[in-house]
């Protein structure tokens, strides 16, 4: 990767290194519009970061059976692996590659998405969480890092990268703020959960206000924000061919600060990240403390993206070496100990306990009696998935959508595992998709378990919100995973299910019930990421080459030899 470390200082003296002591006034005085113009790469001939073409690598791997994916990708050979910066998405034109005109919902979705734009000093910097007209807005009028990701992808796919660039730079500046909750100071690399723009009509000024967890439910810092920021920076670079943004000293420093937090040495004996409840999309108490799959998959993907973006200078080289070591350990741990299929389920069912030696098979001392009854019927013969959580004497057997889809997109899942995840979704379509895609987790917890795990949370009752609710935003992740594994027809089927109700219901945040039949009891209407998730799913189906900005091919060096009988 080429380096241009001198660009900022030579081209614009107003852009400077930001440290943790910078004041709000100093940060707001920076003129982001004077950043260097994007430096376009010749991506028509060679993909950035020396990645192989989409068709050559079949978007990361060749799923099993190979004929399904091979036939699909032969039909897509006219697509480039990288989104071409010279071509706007054609989804607003009368014709699509599948021979049908755009769905009427598309124009409505774009109109709604544009109405959520937030401006700071004349520049778009993000999208609010929801176009909510109720008096009780709570924090739905803020720009959330995780919520903005599908909006960012939609704008990138539609050849509107400036808002994404502005967002990345603004959140980067917010990262350098001093962050305190009560009398405790958070790590320098923590990214905000959200921010909002405050307008002062008297002084005619605008001010950014960030939330690093001090206002969140449970007062938990968002671990996923930093990972999403790195992933989005790579998506921007991949889709535009512009490396000048990621090569800014400020961006390089921002990545290193995030990595310093999660690569620091401690008392852990596992390469996974230890997390509190409520630190990610499931931002309320739901029994995901420990080593949740969502965070581990995002961690893995962010590490791989950072490996592509970091400069190989003195500071960057040290982090590159640490990343490579962690990726090897993390991929082995996740693929061995988090993976569940019919064979592994049977092995756990027959586990012996209280084993004490390095040759132990039941390494986490999991009690076979802790296996939930539902998992025996839920597990198909040919399917599999990554468990929700694995720790000492603990296995969370719930299926979590985001973690499993990110595992496919990041190639944390091996080709065989990715295929089994998709086979499970197809086999359990009624349970996981039902009447509105897609279950955030399955199954719901209820009764005494619900009281203990959630603390009697009235918002996370059974089959509602995070507790088995159906979230339309997950449609884009499912679509991306389907395309990568050569099953676009499965994504089209899910989109058609969503199109029956999503617009008519006012683009709700989530749906309730076993089948997702009811609009969520506290769901906000015109939820931005429900709108953006639909658009991203539609555009990826129209032009599967868009997948390149959010998907990583398999790294053969990380592929372990799986020997469960000897290692688990």
From TrEMBL:
Residues 44-64 are annotated as: Disordered. Keywords: Carbohydrate metabolism, Glycosidase, Hydrolase. Its EC number is 3.2.1.26. Invertase that cleaves sucrose into glucose and fructose. This is Alkaline/neutral invertase. Pfam families: Glyco_hydro_100. The keyword Protein transport does not apply. It is an enzyme of class 3 (hydrolase).
